[in-house]
Design a protein that fits this description.
Elements (H helix, E strand, L loop, with lengths): L18 H22 L1 H10 L20 H6 L15 E4 L9 E4 L1 H17 L7 E4 L7 H12 L3 E3 L6 H11 L3 E4 L1 H13 L11 E5 L5 H11 L2 E8 L4 E6 L8 E3 L4 E6 L13 E7 L10 E7 L1 E2 L8 E2 L4 E2 L4 E3 L2 E3 L1 H8 L10 E7 L2 E9 L2 H14 L5 E5 L14 E3 L5
The chain binds 5'-O-[hydroxy(phenylacetyl)phosphoryl]adenosine.
């Protein structure tokens, strides 16, 4: 793999600033953001008033804990534009979540917000090892989803040559990577696996691909998957995180030289970890639900947004800003099987230990009599399936039926993979 470490002068001053400098900036911006939200968004005025807090009560960063959380249903109640803090004519761009489980969540960006997004997105791509002169194959979906356009803006701003492929037409993805000699790829990790399959189907050697680095996010993936992709393509694989309610891609990103968790761009997004049941703020290092407060956004300020993503905050390493550990999963995706908590990523971790099984999987929950029963659909033969069932029993602590079928029996994603099918109410 190529050495993509930064050279002297590659980093912005804030990336190596002291803890005190970062906190001073955060405090100043947080005061502004709380007032901006309170003064311009009816929801925040009402929720702060109901909690008996006012932006002037913020005397230190820790005082943020006095302010109420914002949850997805608050955004839904204010559909479509009720959470905007500026008149619509100042909103330059709108994105929305897919809304598969109810009303979509609509978010907006002013010109200054888009400039900030491009900036932190460019910073992320630089952390991942890309530089002016690199050619980026962007296979995140373009449209209301923030992935495609979000990455695109940052990549153009930092001077990359961007190929706006979007998702789908997998054979064409491979052709374009090869013909244009892409050095970077941005795509969901599950779709990268489909691209890997396609390389092999076309008789091409993935190791000989021009790719130096893949920047994977929008869904959870394991370090075991990182190894699989890095070895198959002989390229670096780094993790990028974000969510539309807070920005889109580029809230945090791993550095290629350390790959030890995602540095949160804390000059624009203030993270907290809370206990998912009590809401209590937990100290750095403890596992809990990630909460974000935007510090500079104009159109759609977001205060203490409960992401439902589970992770922990860690101190800075390759950059001064704090890291978040790879996301274990969303609290919504947690399966409770006969009292044991299981995340789809724990299954992925075990699956990657069985080399004769393909890396694609889907979990189905059904009822067997009164009991919940977990079936894991994979591709391979019966002995490999038995091996996976034994690994899951030993390492995850649950009994699962592993159903191994022929190649292409597990549905392929072209974006975010659907890992869990809940058929417990059927049949
Ligand atoms: O997925 C933004 C994005 C696009 C991030 C491209 C990275 C790359 P949403 O569609 O709003 O936004 O979904 C956000 O996806 O709350 C997480 O549950 C999940 N997610 C995003 N990145 C990661 C990641 C985009 N690196 C939701 N690891 C978030 C784990 C992730 N989960």
């Amino acid at each position: 793999m190529k050495d993509l470490s930064p050279k002297p002068g590659d980093l912005e001053a804030i990336e190596t600033a002291s803890h005190d400098e970062i906190q001073a900036l955060q405090f100043e911006r947080m005061r502004w953001s709380l007032s901006h939200a309170y003064n311009n968004v009816g929801h925040y005025k009402a929720s702060f008033d109901a909690a008996g807090v006012h932006p002037d009560n913020l005397k230190s960063l820790a005082d943020l804990a006095k302010f109420p959380f914002t949850v997805k249903s608050d955004l839904r109640k204010n559909y479509p534009f009720g959470m905007f803090a500026v008149p619509l004519e100042q909103v330059n761009r709108i994105h929305a979540s897919s809304g598969t489980t109810g009303q979509p969540t609509v978010v907006g960006y002013t010109q200054a917000d888009l400039t900030m997004w491009n900036h932190v997105m460019g910073r992320s791509l630089r952390a991942a090892g890309l530089r002016c002169g690199d050619l980026l194959h962007n296979a995140y979906g373009y449209g209301l989803f923030t992935g495609g356009l979000g990455v695109h803006g940052g990549a153009e701003k930092m001077g990359l040559t961007v190929v706006p492929v979007s998702g789908g037409m997998t054979e064409r993805q491979v052709r374009l990577i090869e013909d244009f000699q892409a050095t970077g790829i941005t795509v969901t990790p599950s779709y990268m696996l489909s691209i890997l399959d396609e390389y092999r189907r076309l008789g091409l050697e993935p190791k000989k691909s021009p790719l130096k680095v893949g920047i994977f996010g929008a869904e959870p993936w394991t370090n075991a998957m990182r190894e699989e992709v890095e070895q198959s393509f002989n390229m670096h694989a780094v993790d990028i995180y974000g969510l539309s309610e807070v920005l889109g891609p580029g809230v945090s990103c791993e550095c290629v030289e350390s790959k030890d968790g995602l540095h949160i761009w804390e000059d624009h997004f203030y993270p907290e970890i809370i206990h998912p049941q009590t809401g209590e703020v937990l100290p750095d290092g403890e596992l809990g639900e990630l909460v974000f407060t935007s510090l500079s956004k104009e159109a759609f300020p977001i205060i203490r947004y409960r992401t439902r993503d589970l992770t922990r905050l860690l101190s800075g390493t390759a950059r001064s800003m704090r890291r978040m550990e790879k996301v274990t999963g969303r609290s919504d995706d947690m399966i409770i099987l006969r009292g044991v908590n299981v995340f789809p990523m724990q299954i992925e971790e075990q699956l990657m230990k069985v080399p004769t099984l393909a890396a694609h999987f889907q979990i189905e929950l059904v009822k067997k009599g009164p009991m919940d029963h977990m079936i894991i659909h994979v591709e391979g033969d019966a002995p490999a399936a038995a091996e996976l069932a034994a690994l899951i029993k030993a390492n995850v602590g649950v009994t699962a039926e592993v159903n191994a079928s022929e190649v292409n029996s597990v549905p392929r994603s072209q974006g975010k993979a659907v890992r869990l099918i809940d058929n417990r109410t059927k049949g």
